[in-house]
């Protein structure tokens, strides 16, 4: 399957990188997304990390597939392995009831619908971000419904999505709800331009105004929202690492081709130590990132939530991939900062990835707290 995905992305999706069908933020339009997904179905690589019987591949198997889907920044969108859908499918697969899976999960898994995860809140209002316990969005029981009020920010893919997972705080604790989108009670306030644009639907800010959700659409149990968030976020951090490793492998290939053909000062660029050594360092970082991903995937496959391992991997891989992307731009000089190749976009996307699902500093802080706890327990 990984080989099929690689062939599909390289031969079918890479040419779409120059397709002009983009929204005002540079992301693929719904028309383009659905056209690519039609071709993915024909090639047998739609949602390739989920087997026909509905079972998810192991995390180590998933890594092989998702790395290859990431060989193009729009490959994950085409193959339905992109965030936030991939993480939302994983969460629903583990927590949702059979009825909710049929109604909300199946359209996403088939590639017919996109989804959004409404957790993060505006920093200007001191809402939940890297610290979800600061959640300001509330939910209260009203008869057979729950009523939700609050604001959410940086909600990836919400524009054009058909399914939403909304997280809110109740007296019992955090809760999650599945909702149909669009919904008049969820109003777009702002759709900012961001440094990345591979994922359709942007990263919008929304006001949730008296959103009524039937009680049967609660995801799991009341008060268990933070636990479910960990079920989703640990594998999701790792999935980000997988996809963007694929993108950096491709950027390295492009930079290598450039360095092995471009001449300066009487010899090929690759023969200058300053350039050749950067490519050598890329190989080292690529291999280390691959090994970290495989290690964390194995821990997840053992049944652990792997919160510590996923934090370590998120830090190590995101920082390594940033170095790789930066070197690729540098090796290619002026060409590297143009849109003539995908290297420039990979650089921008990786910069944003260092913030997705917890910035590097938050994960280091979490790891430092564990070090202190372990020391006290000695």
TrEMBL record:
Residues 123-193 form the Acyl-CoA oxidase/dehydrogenase middle domain. GO terms for molecular function: acyl-CoA dehydrogenase activity; flavin adenine dinucleotide binding. Its cofactor is FAD. One of its GO terms (biological process) is fatty acid beta-oxidation using acyl-CoA dehydrogenase. Signal peptide: none annotated. GO terms for cellular component: cytoplasm. Residues 223-370 form the Acyl-CoA dehydrogenase/oxidase C-terminal domain. Keywords: FAD, Flavoprotein, Oxidoreductase. Belongs to the acyl-CoA dehydrogenase family. This is Acyl-CoA dehydrogenase family protein.
């Amino acid at each position: 399957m990984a080989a099929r995905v690689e062939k599909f992305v390289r031969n079918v999706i890479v040419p779409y990188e120059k397709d002009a069908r983009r929204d005002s933020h540079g992301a693929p339009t719904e028309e383009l997304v659905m056209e690519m997904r039609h071709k993915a179905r024909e090639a047998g690589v739609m949602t390739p990390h989920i087997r026909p019987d509905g079972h998810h591949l192991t995390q180590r198997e998933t890594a092989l597939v998702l790395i290859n889907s990431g060989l193009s920044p729009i490959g994950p969108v085409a193959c339905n392995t992109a965030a936030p859908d991939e993480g939302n499918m994983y969460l629903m697969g583990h927590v949702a009831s059979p009825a909710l899976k049929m109604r909300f999960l199946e359209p996403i898994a088939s590639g017919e619908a996109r989804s959004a995860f409404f957790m993060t809140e505006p920093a200007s209002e001191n809402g939940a971000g890297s610290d979800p316990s600061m959640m300001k969005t509330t939910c209260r029981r009203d008869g057979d419904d729950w009523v939700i009020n609050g604001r959410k920010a940086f909600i990836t893919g919400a524009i054009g999505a058909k399914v939403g997972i909304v997280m809110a705080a109740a007296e019992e604790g955090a809760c999650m709800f599945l909702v149909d989108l669009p919904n008049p009670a969820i109003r777009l306030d702002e759709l900012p331009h961001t440094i990345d644009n591979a994922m359709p639907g942007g990263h919008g800010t929304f006001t949730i105004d008296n959103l009524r959700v039937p009680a049967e659409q609660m995801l799991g149990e009341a008060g268990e929202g933070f636990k479910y968030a960990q079920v989703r976020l640990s594998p999701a951090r790792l999935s980000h690492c997988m996809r963007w490793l694929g993108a950096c492998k491709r950027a390295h290939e492009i930079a290598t081709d450039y360095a092995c053909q471009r001449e300066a000062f009487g010899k090929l660029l690759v023969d200058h130590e300053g350039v050749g050594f950067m490519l050598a360092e890329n190989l080292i970082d690529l291999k280390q990132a691959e090994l970290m991903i495989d290690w964390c995937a194995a821990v997840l496959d053992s049944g652990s939530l792997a919160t510590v391992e996923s934090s370590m991997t998120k830090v190590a891989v995101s920082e390594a991939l940033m170095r790789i992307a930066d070197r690729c731009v540098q090796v290619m000089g002026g060409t590297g900062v143009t849109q003539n190749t995908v290297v420039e976009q990979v650089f921008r996307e990786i910069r944003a990835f260092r913030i997705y699902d917890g910035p590097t500093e938050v994960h280091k802080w979490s790891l430092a707290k564990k070090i202190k706890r372990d020391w006290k327990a000695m």
